[in-house]
Amino acid sequence: MKDIIIEKNPKKAKAKFDDLFLAREQIIKSASKDAKLHDSIKNLTNTLHPKNIEVEVTKIVEETKNVKSFYLKRKEGETLPNFEAGSYITLEIKINDRIYKRPYSISSNPKNTQEYRITIKKVPDGLVSTHVYDNCKVGDVFTISGPLGNFHYNKIRDEKDVIFLCGGTGITPILPMIYELLENQKVNSILLYYGNQKKEDILWETNLEELQTKYSNFKVKFLLTEEEIENYIYGNITEEILKKENLNGKSFFVCGPLEMYKSLNEIFKKLDIPNKYIRHEIYKEELENLLRIEHKLTIKKENQTYTISCYENETLLTSMENNHINPKAHCTVGECGFCRSKLLSGEIKTEISSLRKKDIEMKYIHPCVTYPLSDVSIELP
Amino acid sequence: MEYDVIVIGAGNAGLVSALTLQKKGKKVLILEKSKMAGGVSSSFKRGIFEFDISLSKLTNYGNEENKGEIFHLFDRLGISSKITMKELEHSFHIIDKEKKESYTFPVGIDNFIEQMEAYVPNSKVSMITFFGLAEEIRDAFNYYNEQQVKNTEDLYLKFPNFVQLAPCKTKEVLKKIGMPEKAIELLVATSLPEKNEDENFVSFALHLENSIKFPSVIPTLTSHEISSVLEKEFLNMGGKINYFKEVEEIEVENKMVKKVKTKDKSYLCNHVIANISPITVYCNLIKKEEVPKEAFGLQNSRDLGAKCITVYLGLNKSPKEIGLTKYQYIILNSLQSEKEFKKMNQIKNGNLYATIRNNGVEVSSREGTTEITLTSYFYGRDFEKEVNSSNYYEKKQEFAEFLIESFEASTNTSIKEYIEEIEIATPVTFNRYTSHPFGVVKGFNEKGYDNFLSRYFTEEKETFIKGLSFCGGFGSRASGYENTYLNGEEVANKVYEECMEK
Question: Pick from B43, B165, B243: which is nearest to A381 by CB?
Answer without folding.
Answer: B243
